[in-house]
Structure formats: C-alpha cells, structure tokens
Amino acid sequence: MDELVQEIQTNKKETILVDLDKIEHLVNKVADLVITNSMMTQKIDELKNVEDKKGMQETTSLFERHIKELQDYAMELRMISMATIYEPFEKLIEAASIKHKKKVELKTTGETTKIDKSMIELLSKSLNAILMNAVEHGIETADVRAQKGKSEIGAIIVSAEQINGQIVINFKDDGKGVDLEKVEANALATEAVTEDELTYMSDDDKASLMLHDKTMLSIKQNIDKLNGSIVIDTHKDTGTTISIYIPLTLSILDGLNIRIGEQHFILPTTSIIESLQPTTEIIKAVGDGTSELLMLREDFIPIIRMYEYLNIKGDYEKLEEGMLIVVKAGKEKVALFLDEFLHQQQIVVKPIDKNFRDVVGISGATVRGDGSIGLIVDVKSIIDDKKHLFEKTDVAI
Q1: Structural contact between residues 72 and 116, judged by C-beta atoms closer than 8 angstroms
Q2: What is the pTM of this model?
Q3: Architecture (CATH level 2) of domain 87-247
Q4: Would you say domain 252-396 falls under CATH 2.60.40.10?
C-alpha cells in the first residue's frame, strides 16, 4: 500500500492557475522578441566585415533557436484540447434528436488534439452549428433509414488531428447527403453562380455552394476570420463530410519572403507544397488561351500571375523566366507566378482590417527587420477569388 501511495505521489503533476491575460502578455512579449531578432538579423546582414558578420550570424542563429523554444512553450500554455470543444456535443445531439424525432449516435476522436484558446469562441459556434445542421438536415428519420436498408440509428463522427501546421476537423454523417438540385436553385436565386458556371462544376463544387445559404454562410464567415477553409464532400444516400482546415495559431507563423517586381510579400509556409522554375513543356493554355495550367505529374494546376492579380509591375512576363510556387487551401491548389523567392523567417501577424479596408489576397501584415511593413499573402482568398479557374479544365494543346 505504501509503495502504491509513493508511486501516485511520484507521478502526480503540480499545476497552478494562471490568468489568461498574463499568458497573452507572455505571448505578445515573445512576438516582440521575434521582431527584435528580425531587426538584428537585418543589421548583421549589412555588416561589411566578413568575420564579424559570420560570428554574429552564429550568435543570432542560437538566439533564434531559443526564441523558437520559448515561443513553443508560450503557445503550449495557450493551447487547450479538443475535448473541451467536444464537451457540449452529447447534449446538443440529444436535444436535436428529440426535437426532430430522430435517432443519432455521436462518436468523437482526436480529443487530445490541441488548439489555440483564442480560436475557441468562433470555432465552437461553427462546430455546434454544423452538428445541429447534420441532425436536422442530414440524418433521416428511423423509418426512412429502414426503407433504405440503413440502421435506424444515424451516425455522426467528429475527428480532429494536426497535419502540417494545421488543425483538420472532420464532420462525417451517414445521412441522405446534400440535395444538390436545391443547392443549385438557391445559388442561382441569390446570383452566387451562373447557369454557365454550373455546367462546369463537379458535385463537390456544387455542394460547396451551400456555403452561401444563411446558416452555412455564418459558419463560413467565422472560419474565414480564423484564416481557415471549408471543404464539403457529399454522396446521395451515403452521407456528407465537412472538413475544416485552420492554422495552429494566428499570432506567429513561419513565412517565405517572395518578390514581385520591387515589392516584397510574405507567403505562409503552411500553404506551400513545392516550388519550381517552369519549362514550356509543362505549361498548357486553357479555353481561349487566356489562362494557363501547370502540368505537374498527374495534376493540372491553375496558374495565377501575381503581378496581374495584385496590379503591380513584375520583372518577368514569360513563365519560364520566373518562379512558380504551388500552394493549397483545403483541397484546392494553385501555382503562384512570381519573380523570386527569398529567405524564410518567423513573423508576427498583425491584423490590418482595423485601419484599412479588406484587400482580397492580403490577410495581414508584419514588421520587417528594417522596420518596414510586410504584407502577408492570403492564399485562401486568392483561391476563392479565382474559383472559375478550376471549373474549365479543357486543355488547348
């Protein structure tokens, strides 16, 4: 007995309660260190003495590693497990099942997956709404399910996992699937899409139009505020899967500096798949020849010329002379054409919508090492803005 007590005491972890404001203050101070380190690195790069420069670079490299460790510890303090978000799900399912006279069973996985506490409010609202929507509109009543040869009890599976610097949350039900005809009619009525655009859309693309409905639009707006994206996969009488992709944190991220003409921007590394210098053989014209596709292995990826998109002057117009960076948001990919990519660095994300109007393609800003402001490229909004590039895939050889 004494040995058991001793083992329990040995394994017992000591905990303390810390005010959230103090944790926020700590995270902000770490962000200040990231900016200061960037400034020091900039000054060291300007040194002319090679030996002095080399010695200082080694020191700042060590300092940067310490900052990264401190940042990880600070962010860990602000993280909570998905179990906290899952907690009200059972009661919501029970209440919705009684209200709509349905039998529903809930299963959750990924309870230990950690998420930034600052995202909880918006994320919880969205996940609760998706859950209620699945019970009300997705799962059939017991008698209808029996007629289809299904179990009378509908199933909803919620999972969460961390993949490549993102949190991926999946809602999967075995209900009737999305009524695509109804979604199309609503989208046409609200002018969210045209008849011509519908003819080129896959079923998954059409399902995504439900994000324009009143309930789903509110969910989409919340996820957009978290720099996230939503992907919908649906099959008639089989069910629907709604996947949400959000970054691990909104405050500090790793970014790749890119150059377009004389302008420098920052591209979040979590969005990057690969980079390459294209050749004529892997570039194909689309439709009337005004758009281009990158043929990368078995993928046909739309190309976006960033100098045209941002309405600035670039150094190169020929694709073979510049660089392509393949990026993704959710399941969609595009290849961004730019002049050059430079160094990678940690950046502190600052919102710009409080002082300026929203700019499509720009998600925020950061302070560079020389004190100037760097704009952060918003891959998701660019892809959403250029959705028509995914719809027409006839390749003109």
Answers
A1: no
A2: 0.69
A3: 2-Layer Sandwich (3.30)
A4: no
